[in-house]
Amino acid sequence: MTSSDPATPAGAEDLPKSFSVHAVTGLPEFHHGDDLVGHLPALEDRDIVVVTSKVISKIEGRLVAVGDGEEERQRAREDAITGQTVAVVAQRGPTRIVRNQLGLTMAAAGIDASNVPNGVIALLPEDPDASARRLRAAIRRRLSRDVAVIITDTVGRPWREGLVDIAIGVAGITPLRDLRGTLDTHGHPLAVTALAQADEIASASELVRGKVGSVPVAVVRGIPWQDGEVAASSLIRGGETDMFSLGTRDVVPATASGAGAGIAAPQQIEAALAAVPEVDGVSTSYAAATIAVHSRIDSFETGVYVGKLLVALRAEGLIGSVASRDPVQIETTVAAAYQGRPVP
């Protein structure tokens, strides 16, 4: 619907009175090249087949050997995360929240060691939307059924505890149910309401699949859906609509009130300095808890570097305060645990 179209009348949503979600049980352990379609139950036209990304990764050969020793496994895992990372959004100790090559913002780039054999980790499918399209086409060809396919993965949520499943790949179904321009029951036009129905269906399927019972597939029946060729990647907020694209940089002011809990350790400062990309014309030194930034470039670029350094310090559990600007000196202290209270 375009802005010039007449508003849709109130109550025009095509909603079911009920729907069902069926777990597909009794599936085998899948391996590279295995046939998923041959293990699906009897399907009906307009069903929605929901499959975990883990099964797709196994079938598509996205498992990576990480060795047997604990140190070797950890190093291989960190290397894999780095290889899948486009940008680090936040980091606390060894935990990294990153934007991965699919554009998804996830802990550890979505790399997972659960529900896979010992000694391997699972990368996400290389192109989940393409995987969903292939599976849908195979079901149509072999089972003569017109279904939608959703590929899911489990993610954490900012500001809320608990994990949920989201859609990282879709085929057939339109990911968003766009109600913008629709009138509510009081006659007011909805201005921003676009529901992530693919994510909602992914989460509903997890209620019957669970995490520890080896049930990676569910069939959702009774939800009307419109055919579409829109990818799940359309659900990723980006550009000017992403108010938190700077990641940890947005969190730094909220933790400022926790400063003063102790003296920074040299290894914390060194780790923060090492985390900031080198810039020609900028060098640093530190003595005790004070960092000096020596710059031969303009003040704006220097400020950008200092901003990144403040973020890196916070990731190491420190608070940095700019004590002077010419030259730039940053005083560091250990940050107290943030108790959820906003800065006055």
From TrEMBL:
Record organism: Antricoccus suffuscus
InterPro entries: F420-0_g-glutamyl_ligase, F420-0_gamma-glut_ligase-dom
Highest taxon of source: Bacteria
Keyword Nucleotide-binding among UniProt keywords: yes
Name by which UniProt lists this protein: Coenzyme F420-0:L-glutamate ligase/coenzyme F420-1:gamma-L-glutamate ligase
One Pfam family, short name: F420_ligase
Keyword annotations from UniProtKB, A to Z: GTP-binding, Ligase, Magnesium, Manganese, Metal-binding, Nucleotide-binding, Potassium
Coenzyme F420:L-glutamate ligase-like domain residues: 42-222
GO terms of molecular function: coenzyme F420-0:L-glutamate ligase activity; GTP binding; metal ion binding
